[in-house]
Design goal:
single chain; 3-stranded antiparallel beta sheet; two-stranded antiparallel sheet; 29% strand
Length: 139
Amino acid sequence: MASCRRRWGQVSTTKARGGGAISVGGSPVPFGIAAQAESVVEYQVPVGTTRFRARIALDDAALKQQGGGSVRFLVFTAPPGGNLDRAGLPVPITFGNLGLPADIRVRDVWTREDLGTMHDTFAPIVNWHGARLFRLTPS
């Protein structure tokens, strides 16, 4: 089942924006979802599904528009703005468990920020579905 939040037009599984059949490269598309720009299409996969495959393309009618068309597709396993925006959690690191001395200088590699010298432990906040990279140097 598909639903769509959009700013313009209607979502359709049978008709392209101009009212004709959905087609790509001159070939009809028997199973498609057509939506106008700035749309969020939500598709509920059946319970027990372990794989979801989709092909994404601009419909022929969109390419005939003056200036052609461009698009950006994103696929989420949770609603955008839902659980993906949850606050991060501390991920504690005990230096002794890594075979390191008690005093360690910590640098955030991605932000190029020196975070100072930590003693015994370090517990950076890591966003849900996020990652961080640090350089740990004995003091």
